[in-house]
Amino acid sequence: MILKSFTIPCLGLLGLVLWSCGSENSTQNERNTDSTTTKTQNTEVMTDVHTFAQPQEAAMTHLDLDIAVDFKTKKIKGKATLTIDNKTGTETLFLDSKALKIEKVTLGEEESPAEFKVAPSFESMGEQLSIQIKPDSKLVNIYYETSPEAEALQWLNPQQTAGKEHPYLFTQSQAILARSWVPCQDSPGIRFTYTAKVTVPKELMAVMSAENPTEKNEKGVYAFKMPQPIPAYLLALAVGNFEFAKVGDRVGVYAEPSELAAAQKEFADVPKMLTAAEELYGPYAWGQYDLIVLPPSFPFGGMENPRITFATPTIIAGDRSLTSLVAHELAHSWSGNLVTNATWDDFWLNEGFTVYFERRIMEAIEGKEYADMLAYLGYQDLESELESMGKDNEDTRLKISLKGRNPDDGVTSIAYEKGYFFLRMIENEIGRAKMDTFLRNYFEKYAFKSMNTERFLAHLKETLPETDKLNLKEWIYEPGLPANCPKIEPTRFTEVDKTLKTWTEGKAAAALNTKNWSSHEWLYFIRKLPKKLSQEKLKELDEAFGFTDSGNSEVLAAWFVPAIENGYAPADAAIEKFLVKVGRRKFLIPIYTALLASEDGKAKAKTIYQKARPNYHFVAVNTLDGMMK
What we know:
This protein is α+β, with helices and mostly antiparallel strands. The chain contains 17 helices and 24 strands. Strand 7 (101-107) and strand 8 form a beta hairpin.
């Protein structure tokens, strides 16, 4: 409801944040477009091009939610109360909103009416919500409801769940989708604590990225508290018929009843991962570490929501062979959740560090040969991405410019794998002991703060001056992969190469020595298969190793690509079943890409996609719709 119109900034203006070098507790949103930082006296001024907020004027410091989840209307409805720090005595608070229906806004505990305006939608950013406040305003109450098409929310009917009896809801707020279910200042550089009361159907349970219940209650009303400050993209909610099981003193898992025992067994090594992580880079700062196994439409392998990782069921392989993904999400508890990229242009600071940390955890648990397999597969992904994008593409830089674009455009192997190899290059130059000391101190010094590329480089130069001789700027600001990228030579893959060679020279697939292979060796084997394979050869492999019926989603998804490229019809039904059921974007893109490469495959892809699209989250649909044009 618009009570009265008042002047608001142009939609093209960018949210700004001031970071004071002398303040340890100040909210920080360090944004740097075009690799520049403006300095005003002792303050750095940076911009986040993906928020309408003006937190240098007034910033949210706490969020209190009182919301109800309605599966019939596919809406969340209630009140968001924002505690704000009005730094300049401004009379306008700017928030991010996307397709929210704002019913009314009030100020303070006395709930005096406030004027507000919702501007027209602007690109992927949604709408600027402007609220007239007073210079001494501390609380802003926003009564609102979400749209049934809210991009962060996926509403699942019972048939889309494991139990087939109850509906399900989960959120995916990264990168800028939190604004589609909560009016907020939706920037990775703005942190706030939160509390929440969430009302759900009595037969269901709710969990959030906060302190969580472990049992259902009779009323269907759940209270949550997140005492550590987080950015909006880490706001998370899941509602469904799930149960909790302990995995260790500080680790647990939520899953639908039919999947709980398998999930508990699959994650048995997670307490070891947590211990290994702490031994490397310091205490875990979030209290409890839990996981929730979501329905298969979840678009990612995992999402590092604090205290509770949202995980795809595709990592439940029955042999713990895919749980390096958990190590990745756990590592985010330090790199990303604790020290956060200030803007989405600096996304590599989250993911490159996390991949490095993940592989160090896996090395501590499984040994160097195992970690090197992961690193080499990552290098293959990076090479494939560079080939696809073009090695001179500006988006193959670590620090990229996403101005005027959806920040999801930056979610590529560049941030993850080029970022990893950048850090591994530094480790090779300075030694592991120095690298570990540097990272441990880095996480401690910048805990619960934001980091941008330029300040990281300054910190690196100050802390490790010997790195100044390295080609750091080439790695970060130039496209492609520098010549001093570390080389990985996993000895276990050497044996796979020999095995593959004997098969191509005529040895029967069933006679190959593959007894002790991990999923990573199988993945490497499939990737190294000749591009052209006869139907007989494909059938031989399939009968010997059961690829088309594999219960390992990584192996299965990899196998589908050569099967499609070589027209292996026995896999067609399994491919369609997989694409309709699984919404993990990592798997969908290469499979649909292979289908779309031929006229016959293009027709199949569009038929399958029409059937599968309702099962996919907006994040996946946003990518795949473009591919299908």
